[in-house]
Structures are given as C-alpha cells and as structure tokens.
Write a sequence for this structure.
C-alpha cells in the first residue's frame, strides 16, 4: 500500500488530487487549516468511495509549529510516504503602497519556507522512488496585478523545484510542480461575473479549468519516472486569445 501526504487536501485542487490518488490506491494524510467539518466530510467521502484509509490533520501552513505536528504524527504512526503534494498556499492582496511587512513575511513563510523545512524534516520518511509535487502558479510566471507577494512566492516555488532536484537525487526522489492558471475553486467561483468573463476571453479554451482535469497532471507527474525538475503549466492557453 502506498501513502501520500497532501497539504490543503480537503478541498479545491488538493481534494481533486486526493480523489485521483485514492483511485490509484494511495492511503492519504490530508492537512487543513481550520474547517474541521469539511475535512472530516472529505475523508469520509474518500473512504466510502475507495478502499483506502484517509486521515485529516490540522496543520496551518502559516504556523511553524505545524511542521512539528506533522512530523510527530507521521513518525509516531510509522508512516512511510511515497508522495508529498505541497498544495496549500496563501495569498495577500493589497496595493504596493499599503503592503505590510508582516503580511509579506507570512505569505513567504506559508508558500516557501514551510514546504522547504517540512520536506527537510520528512525526507527520511519518503521511500526511494517517491515523488514530491508542488502547486505553483501561472502567476509565478506572468505578472500578478493583485498580489505581489503571491506572484513572487510562486516564482520562488518554481525555482525551489528546479534546485531541489540536486538535493533529492541522492534519495532517488523526483520533484516537480504544476502551475495552474484559473481553476474552478470556491475562490474563483465567487468572482464577479464581469471579471470572470474578462478572464475567460483571454483563455484559448474559453473557460476555467476543472479541478479534476488538473488532478490528472499531478497523476502524470507522479507516475512518469522520467519527469524531474519540471514545471507543467496548465492555463488553457491563457493570453493566446
């Protein structure tokens, strides 16, 4: 039996990836920030539909203590991981003139520092041949007009993936990232209709990506043993219209 850890795995992109891995027979450890009801419901749904075990654990990516919480849980439970998906992320929107240092630092910790040092702690629990995946972003490639900290940290995530290849190769662990464009998550569904239309007009596919479509790319990166150090962009042809 294989085991995967997915941060932010109880809703949105993370839950779509969880369903995909459950179909592949992975037991799952899914982290969440605050909504215990949704987390419990997500795990119950996975366990009811697939012959796997799914466990949820509260681990806020903006809190350094969460690294210890996850490490202690995994080592105490004697879990050997075959995959880690660093999916959870944080954003902060403000004008450049009104940006606060503490908010900037919080986004950097959540999106860059947290996965880096959690991976450092967990490296000894990952089986040879395992896979580490990050959720990057199209906004780490194109300029982000609304959140400077998000765009810069996602660009850093892409660079982190490239550099980690050198450090994970001795462990026989591959590392890749998916850089989504606009995905039909709750965040995007709540956008005003006129803003959504404006975005859709710039996408060659003419629509936002469904989370389950995106999850298939994570599966590809996990199953293909030759892909390593790559950032796979999935934006439907954004800016080609």
């Amino acid at each position: 039996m294989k085991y995967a850890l997915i941060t932010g795995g109880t809703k949105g992109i993370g839950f779509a990836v969880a369903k995909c891995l459950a179909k592949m027979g992975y037991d799952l450890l899914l982290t969440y920030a605050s909504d215990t009801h949704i987390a419990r419901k997500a795990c119950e749904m996975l366990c009811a539909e697939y012959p796997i075990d799914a466990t949820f654990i509260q681990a806020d990516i903006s809190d350094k203590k969460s690294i210890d919480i996850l490490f202690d849980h995994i080592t105490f439970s004697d879990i050997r991981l075959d995959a880690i998906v660093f999916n959870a992320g944080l954003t902060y929107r403000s004008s450049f003139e009104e940006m606060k240092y503490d908010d900037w630092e919080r986004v950097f910790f959540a999106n860059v520092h947290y996965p880096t040092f959690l991976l450092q702690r967990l490296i000894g629990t990952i089986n040879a041949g395992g896979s580490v995946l990050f959720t990057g972003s199209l906004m780490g490639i194109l300029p982000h007009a609304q959140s400077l900290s998000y765009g810069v940290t996602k660009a850093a995530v892409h660079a982190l993936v490239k550099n980690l290849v050198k450090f994970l190769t001795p462990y026989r662990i591959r590392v890749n990232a998916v850089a989504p464009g606009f995905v039909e998550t709750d965040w995007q569904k709540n956008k005003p209709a006129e803003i959504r239309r404006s975005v859709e007009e710039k996408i060659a596919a003419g629509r936002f990506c469904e989370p389950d479509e995106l999850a298939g790319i994570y599966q590809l990166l996990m199953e293909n043993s030759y892909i390593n150090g790559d950032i796979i962009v999935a934006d439907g042809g954004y800016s080609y219209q």
